[in-house]
Amino acid sequence: MLKESNIRDKLFFLFVVVYILSILNIILTLPIGSNEAKIFYSESGILYQISHIFYGAFNNNLDFRLPFFIFGILNMYLFFILSKIYLNDIKKSMFATTIFTLLPGIITSSVIINIAPFVITLVLIFIISYSKGWKILEILSMIALLLIHDASVIFFISLSIYFAFERDRLCLHYRYFLQL
Predict the structure, then answer these.
(1) pTM for this prediction
(2) 177 and 101 in one domain?
(3) Mean pLDDT over residues 150-159, rounded?
């Protein structure tokens, strides 16, 4: 059993290393797209600021894509933590993380200039902090999400609906308890 666990851990580590190297290869070989060029050269928003953090450090595509790559790797780690909270078996957590990282949207958000890796990071932080009961981190992640992206209003609407149903469910439990 110990041998199987050791092999599984090594294979997962190997997957993570190959994944990181593959994403780096994509970043270095993929030319800048028209939307990325527009953000990098002519806009002045948050994506412009983020994409210029490492400007001139590597003299290649990694200059403007490194922050998005870093947050993509951070998302993989946060998802692994989240999966360990909700899944009982470490094998299932590793499998879920592998599937998550291979989703086309996750790969794309790690490679091109867009707001998605930051939104995903904040949502994962929110879910982890909600699961662990860390209220301050929950609130901070929600505020940051609201400030970073306009479409995060959808996230807040869905949270409101969820908590409204949760409240109704709790009320039904209390009513049942009071009837006893």
Answers:
(1) 0.83
(2) no
(3) 73
Q: Of how many residues is the chain composed?
A: 180
DSSP the chain: -HHHHHHHHHHHHHHHHHHHHHHHHHHHHSPPPHHHHHHHHT--SHHHHHHTTTTTSSSSTHHHHHHHHHHHHHHHHHHHHHHHHH-S-HHHHHHHHHHHHTSHHHHHHHHSS-SHHHHHHHHHHHHHHHHHT-HHHHHHHHHHHHHH-GGGHHHHHHHHHHHHHHHHHHHHHHHHHHH-
| Helix-helix angle 135-148:153-179, to 10 degrees | 150
CA 160, 162, 166, 168 torsion: positive or negative? positive
Rg (CA), the chain: 20
Same domain, 64 and 76: yes
Q: How far apart are CA 91 and CA 17, in angstroms?
A: 18
Range of the domain at 156: 149-180
Our count of domains for the chain comes to 2
Q: How far is CA 176 from CA 11, 61, 164, 179, in A?
A: 50, 61, 18, 5
pLDDT digits (tens, 9 = 90+) for 96-125: 999 999 999 999 999 999 998 999 999 899
Joined tokens for residue 179: 């009837």
| 121 shares its domain with 131 | yes
Examine the domain organization and report whether 94 and 176 are in the same domain. no
